[in-house]
Specification:
The complex is a heterodimer of chains A (about 120) and B (about 90). By secondary structure, chain A is of the alpha/beta class. Chain A is built from four helices and five strands; from the N terminus they run βαβαβαβαβ. Chain B has a domain of about 60 residues.
């Protein structure tokens, strides 16, 4: 049962529960054979910076770094909202592996065939 | 659980996959369980059977759904033990 799945993740250290559960669900999608993309936006873009996920370990879940590594290993991709990233003056040279900075058109293109998207 | 006898899947001259692989996933749940299960199934040969032990209370609903999504066959399910046969390519 092929198909695509998007997780829009808008939090990082400001809400570690949402940040973690977003990647848990993304892992469920990629592990179910879906072409899965996590769209990091708003505060979520901070997760695209090396070292940030290492500081998040929500009780009852695996450490976020491990969840993100498993996601990438299973073939998941991470898009990072360009204006959200720029607004926070983050470092393009310090992106985590597999993350790429994109504009809204990439998100729209990914979703344009009716692919589902959930937000955290 | 119903008795289950996995079949060998190798063709003549090919190495034969072990009849069954065992993985105790403990209390892994939701996406953490699924993404690791995905990796394990990818590493198995078509036809090979995984005997999975998954203690999480969501597993009885999640694992049949995952098999329907991915095309693998759920041969038997008696929580917390699940027998899953890897699909053909």
């Amino acid at each position: 049962m092929p198909g695509k799945f998007c997780v829009n993740l808008t939090h990082s250290k400001d809400d570690t529960d949402r940040a973690t559960v977003g990647f848990v669900l993304a892992n469920a999608a990629v592990g179910s054979g879906k072409e899965t993309m996590v769209f990091l936006s708003i505060e979520g873009v901070r997760l695209a910076q090396r070292g940030v996920a290492e500081s998040i370990h929500e009780e009852g879940f695996a450490p976020l770094r491990e969840l993100m590594d498993n996601f990438a290993k299973a073939g998941g991709t991470i898009y990072v909202c360009a204006p959200c990233f720029k607004k926070r003056k983050l470092d393009e040279n310090s992106l985590v592996a597999g993350a790429s900075i994109v504009g809204g058109a990439k998100l729209v293109e990914f979703l344009s065939d009716g692919s589902p998207c959930v937000s955290f | 659980m119903a008795p289950h006898t996995p079949q060998r899947s190798g063709r003549p001259g090919e190495p034969v996959a072990p009849l069954e692989t065992v993985w105790d996933a403990g209390d892994l749940a939701c996406g953490e369980l699924i993404v690791k299960l995905y990796g394990r199934m990818e590493a198995m040969r078509p036809g090979q059977v995984l005997r999975l032990v998954a203690l999480d209370s969501g597993a009885p609903a999640d694992l049949p759904a995952w098999c329907r999504l991915t095309g693998h066959t759920l041969l038997a399910a008696e929580h917390p033990v699940y027998l899953i046969r890897r699909k053909e390519p």
